[in-house]
Automatic annotation (TrEMBL):
Organism: Noviherbaspirillum album
Coiled coil: none
Pfam families registered for this protein in UniProt: NIPSNAP
Protein name: NIPSNAP family protein
Membrane-traversing stretches: none
């Protein structure tokens, strides 16, 4: 199993708007192609204005296939255009995590 760990740093004051738009328009499309996220969080202590989410995949090939289907979905394309135009995200960081032999996942 691999985990796609993403951290978005929001423009100050835009976190609520990002989450509302994503929950309403982005998440349903993403679930259609990727299933449920492992977790979706906001920072409480540490760097402020961050959204952290994790998606699980069987392999890099599985991730590539499901992401390609998502990226080709007209609903996702429309959501991404709307989200980008809203100017909510200041910075994005992605990490691919690979579990070790003794990991419970």
């Amino acid at each position: 199993m691999i985990i796609d760990l993403r951290t978005y740093t929001m423009v100050p004051g835009r976190l609520k708007a990002f989450l509302e738009l994503y929950e309403r328009e982005g998440l349903p499309v993403q679930r259609k192609h990727q299933g449920d996220p492992i977790g979706y969080f906001v920072t409480e202590i540490g760097t402020n204005n961050q959204v952290v989410h994790m998606w699980g995949y069987e392999s890099l090939g599985d991730r590539e296939k499901r992401r390609a289907a998502l990226d080709a979905d007209p609903e996702w394309i429309a959501y991404r255009a709307k989200s980008g135009a809203a100017g909510n995200v200041q910075h994005q960081e992605n990490k691919i995590l690979k579990s070790v032999s003794f990991s419970p996942m």
